[in-house]
Amino acid sequence: MAMNYIDLVEVLLDQKKMIEKITNDIERDVDFEKYLNNEEIIAITGPRRAGKSYLMIQFRRKTKNGAYVNFEDDRLIKFSSDDFDTLLKAIYEVYGKSKTFFFDEIQNVNGWELFIRRLYNEKNKVFITGSNAKLLSSELATALTGRHIDILLLPFSFNEYLKLSNVKNKKYYSLDERSEILSLFKQYLETGGFPQFVKTNNKDILHNIYNDIIYKDIIPRFKIENEKVFKDILFYLATNTAKEVSYNNIAETLKINSVNTVKKYVNALETAYLTFLNHQYFESNRKLLKANRKLYFIDNGIRNILTLPRYLDNGNLLENLVFLELMRRGYRCFFFKDNHECDFVVFKDKKNMAIQVCFEVNEKNKEREFKGLIEAMDFFKLNHGLIFTFDQEKTVKQNGKTIEIKPVWRWLLDVHEFH
Fold first, then answer.
1. Three-state secondary structure string covering 137-169
2. Of 178, 120, 130, nearest to 150 (Cα)?
3. CATH number at residue 26
4. Which end of the chain is more exposed for a tag (fewer CB within 10 A), N or C?
5. How open is the CA angle 365-276-274, to the nearest 5 degrees?
6. Mean pLDDT of the chain
């Protein structure tokens, strides 16, 4: 049964009033102008509860009278593809002849992609969001072939985390300010940046986010037949964060008969943005696809509620943060391994960088960390390399190369430059 025009107008008026009341949200570190001035459809994706709806509202705030519709409104539960033309008339009633559209969770409506493509073909600017249960990158590619750009929204960066704490990001800090930032960084390192948790510091929220991802997004969506095996794999991955993993090794360690089952379950976790796999660098695609990967989690807080305290390795947590920030900044990441290992080699805009991460450079690990970094620098013909630590800072010359040892927190707060 078709929806009533007047009812749709009332819903849109209520939603418009609601979003215009939101004024105290933390502005995300996104290049708003870049996406607003792009003709393509902008799809905001990412894990559940990372703040996709708020980011969409922030985009709208920077436009002139952009039209907003949230399809998670219970009054739109019976909305169908037959109602899109009526909706468009209601939008024009509330917003005038808007040329910018913001659709939150439009994937709840069958046939949504045809409507979005029509708006796009009529030279409108369109933003959409969707939870990972409804909007996956592979489905977007099919539905909006060649017409969209993704924004992968992760939980709060450390810079956004400080905004919430009313701590200003600046070039120089007094001793007291530095002490406060280090204290906040230690907390961020262990508990992560999911917005609702950061605002409340209630760990029940992390458990709720985890349960929603597992029981609403992954298990029903990917038809996980054996929940115990699935959770065993997840625990194994959590305890091996920032370490090499392979499907065969997981199957052997956990005594799982089918390597294909392991691969299916790990792929489900990655598709739902709970985990990420980083490839070893090879110039041969065949070798790259066969090699082990290093495993990273979407958020240190989520990772830490899955493990026992004895698995709380601050060096691995630091490396996890670096990986997430490299993703935020749009770098293509690999790890490099020859006689020694370098945690990251990254590429962007025809530039590349070699990065090592450890909690502290000391006499026990200095040789290992430097050798892995210098091997990667030699391979890529680099004269400058980085070692990120918790709070060490100095520059070292070795083998004719410059190695900069830098606190991770300083780099995380340098939102405009890579180093």
1. HHHHHHHCCCCEEEEECCCCCHHHHHHHCCCCC
2. 130
3. 3.40.50.300
4. N
5. 120
6. 91
